[in-house]
TrEMBL record:
<dbReference type="InterPro" id="IPR014729">
    <property type="entry name" value="Rossmann-like_a/b/a_fold"/>
</dbReference>
<feature type="domain" description="UspA">
    <location>
        <begin position="150"/>
        <end position="288"/>
    </location>
</feature>
<dbReference type="Pfam" id="PF00582">
    <property type="entry name" value="Usp"/>
</dbReference>
<feature type="domain" description="UspA">
    <location>
        <begin position="1"/>
        <end position="136"/>
    </location>
</feature>
<protein>
    <submittedName>
        <fullName>Universal stress protein family</fullName>
    </submittedName>
</protein>
<dbReference type="InterPro" id="IPR006015">
    <property type="entry name" value="Universal_stress_UspA"/>
</dbReference>
<dbReference type="InterPro" id="IPR006016">
    <property type="entry name" value="UspA"/>
</dbReference>
<comment type="similarity">
    <text>Belongs to the universal stress protein A family.</text>
</comment>
Length: 290
């Protein structure tokens, strides 16, 4: 089954910026673009005039406007547009079978950092089985440096970040961009110090060389698979969120992994992804890890 890039649009400047970013990414990867607008008739028990036909027409106009804008800018791109008769979260998640990735808009920086992404966006990211890219808007255009590297965070062993690294390398290769891999580390808690727990670090020559070795080992299979991608490595003491954000300024895309987590109020996206989505200045790709 052929893949496609899916962008959710709702007529807002943020979603139009997401559609533009998705269109360029589709061209980079040689994939078609699917624009999706969620709409479902839900009459409410209020004394208001409710016109289903009018609302349906508005939904179609929102979609056609986005389609026309993208088609005019990128005439070589194959684009299809569709109104999905469901709630926004369910509608976008329902496109995953054929999606290479989902692309959504984000409102950008504001006074209340914890609410920048919006509840729909967080639910989509938390529930997705495919990578989700959140794109900020600046005057209706994607807030993305014209040039720069793809930045990816690596945590744990090679298997723990395999999905994020694979997505980051594939993106860098498609764009002809360099990749910068960052691994954050912290000092072990005092009670974890023991001859057994510190043996591997001692064999590597200390904690920093141990972390550098772990990053090299995680990158090795992807360097071999994508030899054309220039790669730089960075290991830094600190929290993963802080280290990634400090390195994200010149990046054209920040890639982070997400493990499936479920809290008392439903799925969670994790602290690192949360920090990146709300504070990084560039588009952020959140890649679910099996």
């Amino acid at each position: 089954m052929s893949r496609e890039i899916v962008a959710g649009v709702d007529g807002s400047p943020e979603s139009l910026a997401a559609a533009d970013w998705a269109a360029r990414e589709a061209l980079h990867r040689g994939l078609p673009l699917r624009l999706a607008h969620a709409w479902r008739w839900e009459p409410i028990d209020l004394p208001l005039v409710q016109d289903r036909a009018t609302q349906e027409r508005v939904a179609d106009e929102v979609l056609r406007e986005a389609e026309a804008t993208v088609a005019a800018r990128y005439p070589a791109l194959t684009v299809r547009a569709e109104v999905l008769r469901d709630t926004p979260v369910a509608a976008l998640l329902g496109t995953e079978e054929r999606a290479e990735m989902l692309v959504i808009g984000s409102r950008g920086h504001g006074a209340v950092a914890g609410f920048l992404l919006g509840s729909y966006g967080q639910q989509i990211i938390a529930g997705a089985t495919r990578p989700v890219v959140a794109v900020r808007s600046r005057d209706g255009e994607p807030a993305e440096p014209p040039a720069g590297h793809v930045l990816v965070g690596q945590l744990g062993g090679p298997e723990d970040s395999a999905a994020a690294l694979g997505f980051a390398f594939a993106t860098a290769a498609a764009r002809g961009a360099a990749l910068r891999a960052v691994r954050a580390w912290s000092l072990p808690a005092l009670y974890t110090y023991s001859p057994a727990s510190m043996r591997l670090a001692d064999e590597a020559g200390g904690l920093v060389p141990y972390e550098e070795k772990a990053l090299r080992e995680a990158l090795a299979p992807w360097r071999e698979r994508y030899p054309e991608v220039p790669v730089s490595e960075h290991v830094e003491l600190g929290s993963a969120g802080q280290v990634l954000l400090s390195a994200s300024g010149p990046a054209q895309l920040l890639v982070v992994g997400r493990r499936a987590k479920r809290g008392a109020v439903g799925p969670r996206i994790g602290s690192v992804a949360h920090a990146a989505l709300h504070l990084a200045p560039c588009p952020v790709a959140v890649v679910p890890q099996d």
